[in-house]
Write a structure and sequence with these properties.
Blueprint (H helix, E strand, L loop, with lengths): L3 E7 L4 E8 L4 E7 L9 E8 L5 E9 L2 E5 L4 H9 L2 E6 L2 E6 L3 H15 L18 E2 L2 E2 H19 L5 E2 L11 E5 L2 E8 L4 H19 L2 E8 L7 E9 L4 E10 L5 E8 L14 H9 L10
Antiparallel strand pairs: 1-2, 2-3, 3-6, 4-5, 4-7, 5-6, 7-8, 9-10, 11-12, 12-13, 13-17, 14-15, 15-16, 16-17
Helix pairs in contact: 1-2, 2-4
């Protein structure tokens, strides 16, 4: 069961800094060192500050003999401070630890994008200014409305791309992370709407995360390539896994900004072992569909 997404930075000192964002968008940082010998379950106060900012005292919990976690306030202001800061200083047990925050903006954006892509019913984001912590509603937009939007978008997309024999599924599972889904001969597709993601950050990050996930799941050789799109503001990536039996399986992800805010993510994949596409040969149905999608201006299809 999905619980969180995270990012890690390692330092020459042997320390490791973790950023963890949970499925309800609570977040914490963790510090670990393989040479530590802590007592699991203990809790004690620590102080931290970013650059020359104010010092904050919080409780740290020992997760294992080499790892402690520090819960952070669900605050957009604090989230921005970690993303834009240069140095994090932590004082604990009479010692001082410093961590460079170089790259923290990308790491935190990637973790937040990962959570949003996995959890459809968490539509508001306490880590973004102007949102609340309520679930199931983002502004006046309910999950039902998002599903209706995604379903209409999927139908428009498939017609425009000339993909035949498709069927829009009636309703995604209640706890699914996607808002619309379809099947077609030899392939399936899904549409995700993430309203609170920042397009400039989310577009490349989700594509990279999809590639990383496919690499872990491929039990053979994986080939990855970027896709040219009709809309220059989007990003696409295609992964083809060649199994040990010599059969190919393809997965394609296309991410682009949504006019109403946030981003759309389109996912395509093969059903079972890849079936031949319209052109025959070794190409799969999803690869043929991708060629057609690359010639569609996705922006004009938004309902």
């Amino acid at each position: 069961m999905f619980s969180h997404c995270g990012a890690r930075a390692s330092y020459k000192s042997g320390n490791h800094l973790f950023f963890i964002i949970g499925k309800t968008l609570d977040w914490n940082i963790g510090v670990a060192n393989l040479n530590w010998k802590l007592t699991s379950g203990e809790s004690y106060p620590v102080k931290y500050r970013i650059d020359q900012g104010a010092t904050t005292t919080v409780n740290a919990r020992v997760r294992s003999k080499v790892h402690v976690s520090i819960d952070l306030t669900d605050s957009a202001e604090l989230f921005r401070a970690f993303r834009s800061g240069h140095v994090l200083t932590i004082e604990a047990a009479g010692e001082r630890f410093t961590f460079s925050l170089k790259g923290s903006a990308k790491a935190l954006a990637a973790a937040r994008a990962c959570v949003q892509s996995r959890i459809a019913n968490v539509q508001s984001d306490p880590l973004v200014a102007g949102t609340t912590t309520k679930q199931g509603i983002s502004g006046n937009k309910s999950v039902t409305a998002l599903r209706a939007e995604a379903t209409k978008f999927a139908a428009n997309l498939l017609f425009a791309a000339g993909i035949t024999g498709f069927r829009i599924l009636d309703r995604p599972p209640t706890k699914s992370s996607y808002h619309a889904a379809w099947v077609a001969p030899g392939m399936f597709g899904r549409v995700f709407i993430q309203e609170t993601l920042i397009p400039d950050e989310a577009v490349p990050i989700i594509a990279e995360a999809a590639a990383e996930s496919s690499a872990k799941n491929c039990k053979g050789k994986l080939a990855t390539m970027k896709l040219p799109l009709a809309t220059s503001s989007g990003a696409g990536i295609k992964m083809v896994c060649m199994t040990e039996s010599g059969k190919a399986r393809a997965a394609i992800f296309i991410v682009f900004p949504r006019r109403k805010g946030g981003v759309y993510t389109i996912g395509l994949g093969d059903v079972g072992d890849a079936l031949p596409g319209d052109e025959g040969g070794t190409r799969s149905a999803s690869e043929d569909a991708t060629d057609k999608l690359m010639n569609v201006d996705l922006k004009v299809l938004e309902p």
